[in-house]
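Q: Got a minute? One more chain.
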Amino acid sequence: MAPIALESEDHVRDAAFNKIMHGKSAEEKAGFRAMLKKNPAAQKAAVDEYFKHWDNKLASVETVEVREARKAEYASLTRHYYNLATDIYEYGWGTSFHFCRFAYGEGFYQAIARHEHYLAHMMGLRDGMKVLDVGCGVGGPAREIAKFSGVNIVGLNNNDYQIQRAERYATKEGLASQMGFTKGDFMQMSFPPNVFDAVYAIEATVHAPSLEGVYSEIFRVLKPGGVFGVYEWLMTDHYDNNNPRHREIRLGIEQGDGISNMVKIDEALKAIQNAGFVLEHHEDLADRVDARPWYYPLDGNLRMASSLGDIFTIARMTRLGRFVAHNLVGGFELAGLIPKGTKKTADSLGVAADCLVAGGKEKLFTPMYLMVGRKPAA
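A: Always. Here it is, folded:
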């Protein structure tokens, strides 16, 4: 693996920025209410810092140098993306920021939880194990897996605001004694070697500038004989980087989801094995035949909803729902109720949603390539 230049960490700087931008909005119950309490100047700084990587950099003229510039600032790019997008995610999707499979008659949140349970099952998580959640978001999967498996979880995150949200939810659900959350860069973890019984990542390590780099760090902190399970975002073998439409879809997903460098399945398989893992299972779960495709919530087909409650949940994520929400956000911006840049962020998420659906329908992209690897016992 070629050496990867890592960003210098500055937790004091990040904490100060978080305090200015988010204030006490982490204490709000709902994502939309939290949007109303941001500092406008700090929000603008986050918007400028994030979108400098994407504005006027179209897929048709994308260069290696542009992609390398994003990789060089992978941590800042991801941190500011979630400074901007976390409240929108919570409003539109919930507290588990990932996709899932859907069985017949299965509700949206039930399916989300089953996807988390399945990873825990495939990894063999058991009561009392010490487990690391790499890129834990606001802790939705960690709380579910802790309740399902009885494990003790440490959530790693490089975004202070998400950590505050995660701590709030854990306390609310009576899980604070079973989990904790740590600030850090998953490319350069502060944990000593050989400390975790298991490590998982759910649609998070895609933010790494190098999969081999982050998988190697995970290998380092695992105990000998420990297990690593991951749902990875990857371009499939059908993806052709010389195809302009394929590049447009890939770039739309990357921009709208804070990703510096998404790669293909074969590169991920090489990365996990080069990191030292013995690969026990790998499979694209998106290829399984299910009642509804993983991207159906973004596709706008409300007939696929399994309940009245799901209709209201999914309606926010359809094209019409996003159109209404984006224009409402735009109106709030004009009225000065929310900081400028909120609509730009929401619009970017909308483009990503359309590209995710296109990537799913054309079998160019998967958000659920499952890999389970084990660190050799000796």
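A: The chain has a mean pLDDT of 93.
Q: Perfect, thanks.
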